[in-house]
Write a structure and sequence with these properties.
The chain has helices at 14-22, 41-55, 69-80, 110-114, 120-127, 130-134, 176-194; strands spanning 2-3, 62-67, 87-93, 137-142, 160-164. The chain is of the alpha/beta class and 195 residues long. It has a five-stranded parallel beta sheet, sandwiched between helices. The radius of gyration is 15 Å and the shape is globular.
Length: 195
């Protein structure tokens, strides 16, 4: 299940979907709407929950990917909506786990207020990270990200942290090396499950 980010739709994850298909996966992209920041992230996470329930049998475990704001949507699903019981592997890319100063550019948008450093939403999400361990969490982040400020906001003290060098946030999912790193995480998770 692939979840794009702020002001994105399913086109944002199309290249990743093609690469996952080539690696033997069956990707499902969902773009909870609206992604313009006008609704709280919890609302979008409930849409993700509904899509997982609709698209997969109850006993099916899934791989989950979230880009940027989509990573926070995925985390909320895993941590607050019992998604950890359904998720085999969670990978986020350039997700503002501790917020981004860029979120202050949109003071009237609820989701952007939630993505500010020190927000109540992020404090609650970061209070208990144990469901992320259950979901075999990986955060891939760009050291020079000009949108997630500071870029180190994507790091968490749990799971696997993979830093990359890439300054342009919006182009991360167009870079074959970045997308390859995401695909590798899911391939590795499948290999571990089979062993």
């Amino acid at each position: 299940m692939l979840v794009p980010g702020f002001r994105d739709d399913m086109r944002k994850v199309a290249y990743l979907a093609r690469r996952l298909t080539a690696a033997g996966f069956v990707p499902h992209a969902i773009s909870p709407q609206p992604t313009d920041g006008s609704v709280p992230l919890e609302t979008l996470a409930h849409q993700l929950d509904a899509a997982v329930t609709t698209d997969f049998a109850p006993a099916t475990r899934i791989h989950l990917f979230g880009f940027s704001m989509g990573g926070l949507i995925a985390r909320y699903y895993v941590q607050k909506l019992d998604g950890a019981a359904r998720v085999e592997k969670l990978v986020t890319l350039a997700t503002p786990n501790h917020g981004s100063w860029m979120a202050w550019l949109y003071p009237r948008l609820p989701a952007c207020r939630q993505m500010r450093p020190g927000s109540a939403f992020l404090a609650a999400l970061n209070r208990d990270l144990s469901p992320l361990a259950q979901a075999n969490y990986t955060s891939i982040w760009a050291r020079q990200d000009l949108t997630i400020v500071p870029a180190s906001s994507a790091r968490l003290p749990i799971g696997t942290m993979i830093p990359l060098h890439h300054p342009i946030h919006g182009w991360l999912l167009r870079d074959p090396r970045v997308v390859g790193a995401v695909v590798d995480q899911f391939v590795q998770a499948e290999q571990e499950r089979e062993n």
